[in-house]
Amino acid sequence: NASGGTDIASGVNQALEIIRQRKVENSVTSILILSDGLDDGAESKVKNLLHSFSGKIKSTFSINTFGYGSDHDPK
């Protein structure tokens, strides 16, 4: 049973760490965020993570977000 606790920044942190540690770069790299919930403060936390990884990841990547369910926050 779902009981709340959406933590987008934690997932993004793990994804960035995987990109940082990879042995072979791929010209098409993307992080996909799928969520059915609300995460207050996620935007600022993710911005901080991107800033902290900026010198550690040399290649480019995109972040795509997908919200689903009747109560997700499209913002």
Q: Mean pLDDT score, rounded?
A: 89
**From the structure provided, what is the oligomeric state, counting identical versus distinct chains?**
single chain
Q: What summary fits the major beta sheet?
A: 2 strands, parallel
Order of strands side by side in the largest beta sheet?
1-2
- Which word captures the global form? elongated
Which class do the helix and strand fractions yield?
alpha+beta
What's the helix-strand series?
HEHE
Task: Write the topology of this structure.
Elements: H1 8-21, E1 30-35, H2 42-53, E2 62-67
Parallel strand pairs: 1-2
Walk me through this protein's architecture.
The structure is a single chain. The protein has a two-stranded parallel ribbon. By secondary structure, it is α+β, with helices and mostly antiparallel strands. The chain has helices at residues 8-21, 42-53, and strands at 30-35, 62-67. The chain is elongated, with a radius of gyration of 14 Å. It is 35% helix and 16% strand.
Short recap of the structure:
By secondary structure, the chain is an alpha+beta fold. The chain has 2 helices and 2 strands, in the order αβαβ. Strands 1-2 form a two-stranded parallel sheet.
